[in-house]
Write a structure and sequence with these properties.
Nucleotidyltransferase, domain 5, 8 helices, globular, alpha/beta, six-stranded mixed β-sheet, 239 residues
Length: 239
């Protein structure tokens, strides 16, 4: 656990410095659910204060072209987390981008506050039918379509999508056991949850060859010129 803590901090600090002045053209954002120590309904106030227990959300952004994840934030699914996430994302971009999010209302004020009018922003609102009468616990409501809303600027409808970031959610769940919906490998402390996510994105961005790109996202984005070895990650502990 000490290795996870130390390396997680080192990966977070390195990416905070390296993922700057990015010339992305489009960005997709989403939030993914997990929990720490216990699910929200089983969380006591004592555990919430002691270990940050309860439902937790990871806000993520991805460049669909390079598959780079330039920004993420761990917190609630509220306006405060949206504000912090969007300001962090905007600080890493060097030019105007087209942004697409889902219909979560917290994005509206956060995007306007972070980018002002210097963004082409579309919101993709998914529409669902009634919940299925059986297996309500595991079966989602029937998906019946999407509605595209232009929020700011002139976003290209063809480029307005959240499919890549939603696929990235699957990568997170497959790569980090603590994100599995039904699991006994959940995070026991919030800080360790954050460290694991930082380590995951360091490996994803710098070490893992993306199947469609044949290189890592960091290479495709011009941040590094080679595939990082695990030994290079460990070298971050000495810096």
């Amino acid at each position: 656990m000490k290795l996870l803590s130390d390396l997680g901090k080192a990966c977070s600090e390195y990416q905070d410095k390296a993922l700057r002045n990015l010339n992305c053209k489009t960005i997709q954002c989403d939030e993914i659910w997990s929990f720490v120590y216990s699910k929200e309904k089983n969380t006591t106030e004592e555990n919430r204060n002691a270990v940050g227990a309860g439902d937790i959300w990871t806000w993520t952004a991805i460049d669909p072209e390079t598959k780079l994840v330039p920004s993420w934030h761990v917190g609630g699914r509220d306006a405060g987390s949206a504000w912090f996430f969007m300001h962090d994302l905007s600080s890493r971009l060097s030019n105007r981008v087209q942004l697409t999010t889902d219909g979560h209302k917290a994005y509206l004020e956060a995007v306007e506050n972070a980018f002002g009018t210097e963004i082409d922003y579309a919101m993709l609102v998914k529409m669902y039918g009634e919940d299925p009468s059986n297996e309500k616990r595991y079966s989602p409501a029937e998906y019946i379509g999407t509605k595209l809303k232009t929020i700011s600027g002139t976003p290209d409808p063809i480029m307005a999508s959240t499919s890549i970031i939603e696929r990235n959610n699957l990568t997170m769940r497959m790569s980090m056991r603590r994100f599995t919906r039904l699991t006994n490998a959940f995070s026991k402390k919030l800080e360790n949850h954050v460290h694991a996510i930082s380590l995951h994105f360091m490996h994803y961005n710098f070490c893992r060859i993306h199947k469609s790109l044949r290189v890592t996202p960091a290479m495709e984005a011009g941040i590094t010129d080679h595939i990082w070895e695990i030994s290079e990650l460990l070298d971050l502990l000495e810096n």
